[in-house]
Amino acid sequence: MLRYLTSGESHGIGLMAIIDGVPAGLKLKEEFINKELARRMVGYGRGGRMKIEKDKVNIISGIKKGVTIGSPVGMIIYNRDFKIDKLPDVFCPRPGHADLAGLIKYNFCEARSVLERASARETAAKVAAGAVAKMILSELNIDVFSHVIMLGGIKADVSGLSYEKIIKQAEQSDLRTADKEAAKIMRAKIDEASKKGDTLGGVFEVISRRVPPGLGSYTQWDKRIDGAIARAIMSIPAVKAVSLGDGIEAAGKYGSAVHDEIFYDKKSRSFLRGSNKAGGIEGGMTNGSPIVVKGYMKPIATLSKPLRTVNINSKKEAKASTERADVTAVAACGVIAEAAVAIEIASKLTEKFGGDSILEMKRNLKGYLAAIRKI
Predict the structure, then answer these.
(1) Other CB atoms closer than 10 Å to residue 11's CB: what's the count?
(2) Is residue 156 a contact partner of residue 148, using CB atoms and an 8 Å limit?
């Protein structure tokens, strides 16, 4: 199985990612990883940090002549804004952030050490790890993409658009939304929030196509792929809810309006569904339809006009500490979620089809797809 760890602080020397279980024979392209890192940094409403950092990955292990060798892949992203030892202590924890709970847990006298690691800056390492997972998926003809479907209460209308159209228009948008008219209103809402010293959240959708049926399992709770994906999305800072397919909307409907009817296509010798309200997952397993997952991101906790809190030392009411931050980062959060979903799918693929080499995975997947056409 694919697994990874990250290390590093927001204003430390850099961020690290170690990915174990990467199959041998995969061509690792630094330029692709750097492109993914750049996608994470764009978006209308981002803060000043994005103007400082120009994230570039350094692959330090697990490859020979640009090809993976089966051992753990190690990567470093150096911070330009390296000043952790020069930053002031934080005595006024921010509501909605890890500050207070973190300093209580680790017995700190202030919150700087908490916010340095709890910062969303860590997600650069997650995106680098996800880029490696995406390269594995690409070898198996599987893709992962995202788009913003709501920001600051403004909903995007993508009804009638093909996946190809959504991908193209989202990639061209500085808000990663395929609805150009909605994007105009979203930008105005972001400008309004910025003037007020406030922040905005929203909803992104991640879609993965051509995932074979049968990844995950119903046999134990921790083998269910929907559980793994939900956990991965919820691990992203500021994400407070996850929905698979029509999950949240489906809760208020009749079953007859929710479940995807099953058909059989004799020509392709495959089972099909007339819709995809389940988001490509039934009973903890992929069913062959595109995986569709939504993530709900709350407004960022750092406000330029801060909320009330309590000073850790005096125990008196105070204004929360302020840090350089974004007005909104829903677009970036979608890119991070792509990485999270790609890692979980790649992990289940290596588990099912063998992860010693890419050639082994391709051979086993081909045989599996041929076998299920005989059912």
Answers:
(1) 19
(2) yes
- Give the C-alpha separation, 65 to 51, whole Å: 33
How much is the average pLDDT of 237-241? 97
Q: For strand 308-310 and strand 317-319, is the pairing parallel, antiparallel, or unpaired?
A: antiparallel
Please count the other Cβ atoms lying within 10 Å of the Cβ belonging to residue 250. Answer: 18
For tokens 């927001």, name the residue.
10
Using the 8-state DSSP alphabet, how is residue 212 labeled?
Answer: P
Q: Which amino acid is it at 316?
A: K
Contact 293/279 with Cβ under 8 angstroms? yes
Helix or strand holding residue 184 (H, E) = helix 180-196
DSSP reduced 3-state for 147: strand
In tens, the pLDDT along 70-95 reads 999 999 999 988 998 999 999 999 99
**Cβ of 203: how many Cβ atoms within 10 Å?**
20
Q: What is the pLDDT of residue 325?
A: 81
Could you give the CA distance from residue 343 to residue 355 in angstroms, rounded to a whole number? 13
State both tokens at 12: 């430390």
CA 264 to chain centre: 34
Backbone φ and ψ for 273, nearest 5 degrees, come out as -120, 140
Question: In the structure encoding, which two tokens stand for residue 161, read together?
Answer: 């658009």
